[in-house]
Amino acid sequence: MVSVSIRGGLVLLAVAALVSGCAGPAGTGVRPQQPLNAPPAPAADLQADKTRIRAARLRAEQTRISAARRWGLKKVPLTAPPAPAVKPRITTRHGFEVDGHREKGLPPVFTTVPTEQKIVFLTIDDGAEKDPAFLRMMSELKIPYTAFLSDYLVKDDYGYFARMRDRGVVLNNHTLHHPYLPALSYARQQREICGMQDVIEKRFGARPTLFRPPYGNYNEDTLRAARSCGIKYAPLWNEEVFVDHWEYREWDQDIHPGDIVLSHFRGRKDWKGTMPDMVRRFLNRITAEGYAVARLEDYL
Ligand SMILES: [Zn+2]
After folding, report:
1. Is residue 285, in this structure, part of any structural domain at all?
2. How far is the CA of 241 from the centre of ligand 1 (A)?
3. Are 269 and 56 in contact (CB under 8 A)?
4. Lower CB density within 10 Å: C or N end of the chain?
5. Contact, 80 vs 292, CB < 8 A?
6. Ion ligand 1 — residues with CB under 5 Å?
7. What is the pLDDT of residues 205-263, one digit of tens each?
């Protein structure tokens, strides 16, 4: 019994090592993991694999250092831990519930993901500014983020957001016209939310499971309507980053493990700088405080 469980443990460790090796940037030449029932590889092969993995990691690290320098960051952003094997249980933040929220099985409304790790999640809303430099910056720095799109702002250039999707960003629902939803009937709220589900599915090929109500305002009808068109989660935010300052929900005016950070697709027309300027402010701050950016969808 004991030897079996020890062997099982060793196999798990070996798999974990391979998986984390593969979790590096794509195209690093890391070999795909062997099936568990394959015959053991000769020692020389294993040594060669280890050398290759080490070289790939070194190359990836050098790429990240030069990207950080090129984009004017004070420090190289920290790398987030691998996606959790067991996802945290997401519940509605206290004080953010509607009547019978949990009993009715409505999508949870939350501002932070429960975790002890020093990670935050970046979410970017609306879609007015379509800055190609922003796409390049996020890809080169390998910073994950989640977009919440409103159709009236993105429809003049779906191609920009298709390129974002091609880079691994999940495109989520922020209504068709960005209204103040609690003022609308159930039927009109449903048109705003389900209509945007249809647009995203048609243009980008996948139906979102995340929805963020405009201005963070919602009522029970909002969450019922969202659920009726396939929404599972309604993430809000705990901090907002602008090009020249931060705003906080908490009294301590600080960032915390698992916080969801909001920003917007905005450019010089809306604020005093570019999207890369905003990202610089965001990354310089969180890196200095020891935080990495993780992918929200990995935790849901
Ligand atoms: Zn918005």
Report:
1. yes
2. 14
3. no
4. N
5. yes
6. 125-126, 214
7. 999 999 999 999 999 999 999 999 999 999 999 999 999 999 999 999 999 999 999 99
